[in-house]
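Bit of a strange request maybe. I'm writing a small parser for structure token strings and I need a real example to test against, not something I typed by hand. Could someone generate the tokens for this chain?
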Amino acid sequence: MGIEEAKERVDFFKRLKLAIFKLEDYGYFLGERLSTAFKYFFLLIFIMTVIISAIETYNFSIQINKVYNYIENELPDFKYENGNLKCAEKVEAYDHDYKFYLFINTDENVLDENIEQYKQKIYDSEYGIIALKDKVIYLIGDNSAEVKYEDLVKEYNFNISNKSELVSKINSLSRGSLISIYFIASLIILYIINTLTTLSDICLIAIFGWVASRICGIGFKMAPVFALSIYSISLSIVLKCIYYVVLSLTGFVVQYFDIIYLLIAYVYMIAAIFMIKYDLMKQTEELKKIFEVQKKVHEELDKELNNDDTDDEFEDEVDDYFGDDDNDDDDDDENENDENPERENEPDGSEI
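Reply from user aminoacidic:
Good idea to test on real output. This should exercise your parser:
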């Protein structure tokens, strides 16, 4: 199994742990493919979106139950006929949890001043509905829209003439199906939004990391820097998810969280670059030491080889010297025999 395959086999949660707690191991991510980092990123965004969508759906279910209970128990009787709504009494209701206003005034002539007062109260809140005799006004923030009851009936085929029919219609609806549809829709929409917004943040972090690496004297290409930026933003994504859960359940607000969110990612990126540079310097020093040791070993080997050559020359000289003396003795013996040739034919004393 190759190195790339081994890196791809590292599971998601181990990668998340390395990305958050092991800055000194960020060099591990440099050698992997950019596609591997993107798989990690898309899975992380998906998990975060599932959690956020679950919280959104939980809040939606509570809100739906509140609306159902209010319609059934507190909404006054009304009658709808020929495009006109007639309510038994005026209504001004406010939900503090969701900052929602409901105004119902079906008098024949409602003063514009009263309508402006209703709108101003909704503007000071977040959103609300104003139900008049022949139309309904929706307000979300600074935006508003007016719709005639007749148009609503034609478009949605919503034929309700009184409160009892409305309650029966609501009770016939499957709340579980409605909540499931809301969860799936919010999951798809939030996943697309979170992916695009986080990718834009990653691009900024990658550019910052590329410039920082050049300043630090590390010649990174854009692909490994982009991978590092994905892992650098991991903690920010986790904190964003936790913050959203806390905000939804408790209403606790952290000022400048968006700035802190990006600042953490930038700090992780620059810290990872410094860690990688330190590792490279350490490896360079170790290589230098290895080179020095190898150089000393080569020098010692050269010295030994030179000593062996010197010994061989000395032995050759000794052999040459002693070899010449033996030859001289042989020459003397031959000369002596030449001078006394009769001695060669002289019989032994043993012979008679």
